[in-house]
Give the backbone structure.
Amino acid sequence: MRHFALAVLLVLGGAAGAAAQSQPVGAGLGPTPADVLCAGMMTNEDVPFDTYVISGEEADPRTVFALGDYIYINKGASQGVKVGDMFMVMRPQTDYLHVQWYSEEHFLAGQAGTIWRDVARIKVVVTHPEVSIAQITYGCTYLQRGDYVRPAVDYPAPPFRPLKDFDRFAPPSGKSQGRVVRAKEFQAMLERSGVAYVSLPDAKVGDYIRFYRPTGRKDSAIYQIGGMTDHVLGFGSTPQHYHPQDLPREVIGEGVVLRVTKTTASVLVYNELREVYIGDQAEIE
């Protein structure tokens, strides 16, 4: 009887697994709260530093603060802060160990500006004349002294496009094109749920973005060999030479725009045939 029950469980489990695998990821779905609230952005605009995190409970010996903790900000009732006010906490990021991934990276990143990391959402629970106490109600990462505090923004959560509509052989859309300049957490490779900062400042929240890569072109990216469109030493060649522009491009994934600044769009990758790299091309669908 025990063996029979085990066999039934295995069959049911296999059927459930097959059903889950047959359901396209992202079909009729959209970004999670973490996707939306923690996407971050890349901009060359100045972010005001007039409000910031001073410290919090157990300041000695605590170095950082997390979800549920109470922290102190440098604005109080005298500056118009009220109990119940919501703020978002941000932090500029610098990658001190960054390795250049593609040839134009430093130039494009210099134009795009600074990466701003979403840290948390906080709610004011007590006000004093010059400072306020706020509780961390949502956390993307830890808080620390000196983090920027800004009025909370309710970011929209645009839906994903069903995977059945994905066209891996799609021709150019004819709309604005850009590059994946950098990525959240300074990642060089993105899969589903990764966030790319793309040089498409004319995009709108909710736009769908197609990521693609020219065939065989070398952009001086460290993962590329280049020049493999029509010949590989020891593994054949064609009698005629083909340039990358002579061949179809390689569509590698799709994303949806979550935020837009003056220099970039924060794009959530929700579908990919293979990894999206910084330096890859992108276009508005």
Q: What stands out?
A: The two ends are 57 Å apart (CA to CA). The helical segments are 2-22, 33-37, 105-112.
